[in-house]
Every structure is written in structure tokens, then in C-alpha cells.
Amino acid sequence: MDLMGRDSILQLRDMLQAAEPQDDSSDEEPTANQPMAKMGPADVGPKKKAEKSALPPTAPKPPTKDIWDEEEVATGAEYEDVLDPRPQPEYDVVFKQAVTSEDMFLQMGNKNLSSASCEDMVVKIKLPGHKSSEVELDVTDKFLDCRTPKYKLGLHLPHPVDSKNGRAQWVQDQETLVVTLRMVRDLDFINF
Hints:
This protein has helices at residues 3-16, 101-106, 188-191, and strands spanning 91-96, 120-126, 136-139, 143-147, 152-156, 167-171, 176-182. It contains three helices and seven strands. The chain has a four-stranded antiparallel beta sheet, with no helix packed on it. The protein is an alpha+beta fold. The two termini are 49 Å apart. The longest helix has 14 residues, at 3-16. It is elongated and about 90 Å long.
């Protein structure tokens, strides 16, 4: 038997060896002078060093004269113009997923028919009578703003998106702007 195994057995023997009981009543708790009274599950094995806290202490924010915090202002509120008479164009929001033959026929992946398995959000905006040069498009993580001389669309997106890596395409024969955005959700690592 190696030295480590022998020491472990000796430590176990010392831990389990109790002082002689003073009386035979088994329903009483061990008293403080008995070795088992001082031990718990955390006392088995080598002693661990105290771990430092994983989160650094947060520094207090410096006082400012701001009326609202950034979190309190609704996303896209700067685009909402109640005095703007332009109508909202027709639009569709469609979810898109990349599907392979294993997903379709063998159902080997975690994909299903729900929007939780979709990677992209496609927004199709119909802008009749316009050219691509007349379209102004601004996309943030939770808001899409599309403006032309005749139309205005301020759309709060149903899921957060990666606004830096989106793709917009103008379909000339349909006079439609197609915006494809990669969704960024908290539980995407489970669905994919």
C-alpha cells in the first residue's frame, strides 16, 4: 500500500474512532468533548485555502446632473416623431434558420420548427416608388429605423441583434428593402 493510502486510512480511523460514550443513549447529540461533535462534511480531506471573491468590488458612480440613467430611456425613443406625417410602410418580420439534411430527415440536431432555433431575423420593408439611394437605414441592437421621403418606419425588434454585422439588400423589381440581422440571445448556446 502506498504512503498516501496508508495516511488516508489512518486519518479515517482517527476520525471514526469516538471517545468512549458516557451513557448508552443513542438519541442524544454528541457533546463538545467528543471528536465527532466538532466535525462536519467540510472537515474531511485536506484543508482548503480561502478563495478570493470572483467579482471585483464595484466602484460607486460619480455624481452627475443627468435626470435619467441610460437604462431608463426607451430604446428608439429618439426616433419617435409624433409630428411626422409620413405613413408607415408595409413590412414583414421573418425568422430564418440554417437547416442541413441531418436536421430535416434524420433529426440529429437540436433544431425544431420554433423561432428559438432560428439564427437570423429578416425584415422585408416594401417601399413602392423609391430607389435605393433614397433610403436611410439605421439599426441598433433593439431598434430598426428606416426613412424615405414618403415613408417612416421605427421598429422595435422582438429579439436583440448584432447590429454591426447585419446585411441590407435592395430588391429593385419588388421595390423592397431586405434587412438580414443575426439574433443575439442569452440561451442560443442551448439551441445550437
